[in-house]
Amino acid sequence: MNNQSSDQELVNFLKQYRPNLPEAAPDLELKILATIERNEEVEKKQNYLEKVRYIASNNRSIIPGFPQWAFPPAIAATLIVFWSGYRLLVPAQFNPDEGAHLEAFLVNNWEDVLQDSHGENMSGAQTDWFNFAVTADSEPPTTN
Amino acid sequence: MLGVSANVLIDDCSDSDLVAQCLKGDRTCFRYLYQRYQHKVRSTLYQLCGPSLLDDLTQEVFLRVWKGLPKLKHQDNFSTWLYRITWNVAYDQRQAFAKQHSFDSKLKNQEEMDQVLVKDNISDLMQLHYQDLVQRGLEQLSFEHRSVLVLHDLEDIPQKEVAKILGLPAGTVKSRVFYARNAVRKFLQKEGVREL
Mutating which of A3, A6, A14, A38 best tests the B interface, going by the most B Cβ atoms within 10 A? Predict the structure, then answer.
């Protein structure tokens, strides 16, 4: 009874009368693709959070070889270095009072110098200077 | 015209080509795989789990496929792997249904049947009667025997491949096919089908 032909008859019967497959929802394909996309985004977020949690739980540094506890002191030290460098490199602001004072000092100083030299050498130097400029081809006096 | 030539190109593409493209993140190729296999997947799920949640189960299968693609070692065996996932989803669903699958579902099926009978009139009565018998014949099998019968006899998958899908020795599949056919035949004969 259960030979190959009767098996084939049974299979044919089952195929012929198997219940009709209901139609799929028209948007099923799009739904599946949308679900895949949503799922991937969620997975990406989860992976990122897991990575952060893993780093935090193991007290591991984001930069290999640099311990996590050293971050605040390092940041403070960097700020101090920048601040002091700025103070050293930027010139002090010029004070207008100091400038006026310095200018007056220079003028006075220069005038004093001029007056001193004027008093001492006025007669000789001035005449020499004027005499020297009289003729271009005049020779200096000889002492013969 | 463009659509036709595109379809021809897609038909020429092997499963492994499409899988390779999917692994590069190409969702269009995944769409082609879906279009190629969705009918077989839905049909198998329908025979194993019935009409309720059919679209949800199909969605679950293809979601698992997309997630599992990077782990697929032999891309040539895509269809076997796909059937394996389909069977897993059906199995999980059967487990979830196990507590509820009792009088309620039978009652619901009977109600659906009555509605169909009223709608389609008496001309298709014999056809509907036989369809009901086949459905019930499959339902009275254990899930293991039903799986083998659906995959081998209804989906035309060779026994060796069924063995791969279910992770069973070929001999076990053969004996299960034998047992399942006998059980269904007896049921149908008992219900008055004389052609077998």
Answer: A14
In order of A112, B153, B160, the CA distances from B164 in angstroms are 115, 16, 6
Mutation to test the B interface, candidates A2, A13, A20, most B Cβ within 10 Å: A13
Mind listing the pLDDT tens digit for each residue in B12-28? 788 999 999 998 888 88
pLDDT value of residue B3 = 47
Query: What is the CATH code of the structural domain delimited by B1-100?
Result: 1.10.1740.10
- B131–A20 CB contact, under 8 Å: yes
Q: For residues B178 and B120, which has the higher predicted lDDT (pLDDT)? A: B178
Confidence of residue A144 (pLDDT cuts 50, 70, 90): very low
Return the number of other C-beta atoms located less than 10 Å from residue B93's C-beta: 19
Chain A positions contacting chain B at CB under 8 Å are 2, 6-7, 9-11, 13-22, 24-25, 28-29, 31-33, 35-37, 39
Spatial CA neighbour of B140 closest among B189, B110, B180, B92: B180
**Where residue A86 falls among pLDDT bands split at 50, 70, 90?**
confident
Lowest mean pLDDT across A15-24, A124-133, B58-67? A124-133
- Enumerate the domain spans of chain A: 24-58, 64-89
> Tokens at residue B100, please?
């509820």
Residue in A with minimal Cα distance to B153? A11
Written as one string, the DSSP assignment of B73-95 is S-GGGHHHHHHHHHHHHHHHHHH
Instruction: Give how far A6 is from chain B: nearest CA, Å.
Output: 7
pTM of the model: 0.63
What is the ipTM for the molecules in this complex? 0.78
A24 and B58 within 8 Å at the Cβ level: the answer is: yes
Q: Could you give the maximum distance between any two Cα atoms of chain A, in Å?
A: 168
Looking at residue A43, its pLDDT comes to 84
Verify whether the Cβ–Cβ distance A18 to B154 is below 8 Å.
Answer: yes
